[in-house]
Each structure stands twice: as structure tokens, then as C-alpha cells.
Amino acid sequence: MGFTVGIVGKPSCGKTSFTNAACMTDFKVGSYPFTTIEANVGVTHVRTDCACRDFDVEDNPKNSICIEGVRLVPVKLIDVAGLVPGAHEGRGMGNQFLDDVREADVLIHIVDASGALDSEGQEVDAGSHDPVDDVKFLETELTEWMHGIVTKDWRRIASRVRTEGAKLDGLLLEKLSGLQITRPHILKAIRASGLTASAADHWSEEEIRHFVSTLRGIAKPIIIAANKIDRPNAEENFNRLKETFPDYLVVPVSALAEKALKDLDKSGVIKYIPGNDDFEILQTDKLKEQEIAQLDKIKDNILKKHGGSGVQNILNKAVFDFLKMITVYPVHDANSLTDSDGNVLPDVFLVPEGITAKEFAGVIHTALMESFIHGIDARTKMRISDKHVLKDRDVIKIVSAKGSK
């Protein structure tokens, strides 16, 4: 789990409910602002088709879960303190929030789609608050926070670029690496802003702000979770969010429905695979008539209508679509698809698109990368070189001078 999904939003919007649903945790949930003071950290899973389907084998995973050919791969998730307007100036839990956000590679913004909370997280009449404003203020707060960091000592940095020939991206990397911002992020933002790095000392305030806004969008991409989608006014607001922010991905979500289904699945009352648009009741006698009626509402008004509760969908979007991750399975024996203990397809790793066989060896262990000889594709049984680019659901054996994996 070399990356982190951050759950952000204003107080009481459902961030912790989403985290509990995603991670099956029991973090404190409250109807008042700042229930979450310190960040809640948990482990959730993303869903992908398991390679066991391709080989028609029965696997026994060690570092993940496989349910009927669906592989659930662990991902770190952090639910940070609620954000209010002025957070970059220290309002509310602003400083705590922004410190926690540093760790996140992608942000899921939980928005109360029903419009029943004001900008401070206080309850108001349903539909009286515009969720569009929540998205705008969060975007502003993150940009202002990053702008303050970038512009501190800006004149000195820009002067070094001009007088010493120093690289702007290198100087900014020194300032921003603690925010999980990389050199490629910075270079991409400079290009996308249409600015010339060597002329940084001539950038106007407007150009600097445009660069920072672009960098924030690249380094801390945001996906919008339109939570409480089954509440009054939520559908209308969901559509408005999509229309207002065409460049954002907006996903309908019901965190409470997902948690209820997972709880019932865990107790054996129903059978539910996260991300499915249906479930099977296994023990009707354990449910009251009212509970069955509620399950029917969840199935008809949420799962069938939106293709699921949205929790698994948005997690998958964050990891696979925004972070551009793929799954790769290392094995010790390319014929039996086992590790050295005989476990079939025991491990799966989430790695960036474009990773080579040698780079993947380093993900498993540094020594394997340093002594890499070649890999073996379990599908073709052919050797692959160190520069061979891996594909999603590849199953490979790494052969090295220090042994094989």
C-alpha cells in the first residue's frame, strides 16, 4: 500500500460514515461538527477481476481477498478532520486538516448531496444549502494552502533560477516533497500552465496562482462523492454538480447503505460482494419485516438505480482511473501459479501503469531488482526482459541471481 486515498469534506457531511463503510471500522460518527479531531486511518479495498478466472484455478490469497473471482486488494485510506472556510488561515481544524492532506495521493470529497448542512456543517432545512458551494470552497482552501507554501521565498527561488541557472522544478521539489508532490507533477503543471520556468522571476501574481491551481489539480486530484443520494433533493443536486463541474468525476453514493449491507454480510444474514448491484438474503428468519422492506428500498432505490452503493465504485475510480494503477501477480512457479509454499496466486500488487518487469521486481524486494536476470510470463511461458512493460492482471515469475519469486 504505497499510496493513500484521502477522504475530505466539511464537518458532518458523512466522511466518517464513508470510511466506516469502506474499511468496516467503527470510528466515531456524530451529527455535530468536528466529530473527527485526529485523522482516522484504515484499510479499504479496491475491486478487480482476479487472474484466477483467466487460468480457471482455485486460488488461496494471502495479501488480499478473492470472492467468486473478484479480487479485493488492500488500500490505505485516511479520513481527515472536517474542513471549513478559512481553514488555510487556521479556522476550525484547518491546520490539522491540511497537515493530514499532505499524505494523500488522491482526494475523495464527500459532499452532502441533500443540501441539509451549511458551510460549517450545521444542520439546516433540507435543500437550503447548495452543495456546489462546498466543492468551490474546498478547492479554494487547498489552492490557497498550497499557494502559501509555493510563494514563501518565491523571489529568492526565482532569482536563483535567473542568476544561477538553477532548475525551478528542483527548487520547488525541495519545498513540496513533503506534500507527496513529485518532479513530474511540477513539470506537468508548468507545461499545462503555458509558462516558462526559466522566466519564473517575471511570472505575475496571476500566473503564479494559475500555476499553483494547476499543480494542485495534478498532484491532489479530487473526485466528488455525492453522498446521501437517496435523500430528498439529492438527485437534483447530483445533476447540478455534474453540470457545474464537467471536469470532475461525480459519483452517487450512499455510505450508510454500504455499511448496512456489509454488516449483514459479515453476520451471514445476506451474501453481498462490495460493488455489486444486488445481494442475496440467506437467513430471512433473522430479519424483521421492516428490515426486509428497508433492504428492498436499498436494492431498488440505490443499488439498481445507481449500479451499486457508489462506495466501491468511487474507490476503484480513485485508484485505477486517477492514480492509474494496475494489478500484477508474482509467482514462484509459472506453471502451477504458486509461491514456494504451494499457495495459488497468493499475492497481488497495485503498481503504476507502465511499470517494467525489473521495476516490479523492486516492488517485491530491492534485492530482486538489483540481481534481476529475466521474468517469465505465466500465460505465454516466455521469457520477458527487464524493460518489458507489464499489463493489468499479468502473472509473472521473477528470476534473479539471488533466487526467484
Description:
Helix content is 38%, strand content 19%. By secondary structure, it is an alpha/beta fold. The protein has two domains: 1-39 and 80-322, Rossmann fold (3-Layer(aba) Sandwich); 323-404, Ubiquitin-like (UB roll) (Roll), CATH 3.10.20. Strands 1, 2, 3, 4, 5, 6 and 7 form a seven-stranded mixed beta sheet that branches. Helix 4 crosses helix 8 (205-219). It is flat, with a radius of gyration of 23 Å.
* Biggest sheet architecture: 7 strands, mixed
Put simply, the count of helices is: 14
Kindly give the count of domains. Answer: 2
Give the averaged pLDDT, no decimals. 89
Rg: 23 Å
The percent of residues in helical segments reads 25-40%
Name of the CATH homologous superfamily of the largest domain: P-loop containing nucleotide triphosphate hydrolases
H/E topology pattern: EHEHEEHEHHHHHEHEHEEHHEEHHEEEE
Q: What is the CATH first-level class name of the largest domain?
A: Alpha Beta
Structural class of the helices, strands and pairings? alpha/beta
| Oligomer description | single chain
Kindly, what is the distance between the CA atoms of the first and last residues, rounded to a whole number of angstroms?
19 Å
DSSP E strands, number: 15
- What portion of the residues fall into strands of 2 or more residues? 15-25%
CATH architecture of the largest domain: 3-Layer(aba) Sandwich
What is the CATH fold-level name of the largest domain? Rossmann fold
**Poorly predicted sequence stretches spanning 5 or more consecutive residues:** 28-37
Sum up the overall morphology in one term. Answer: flat
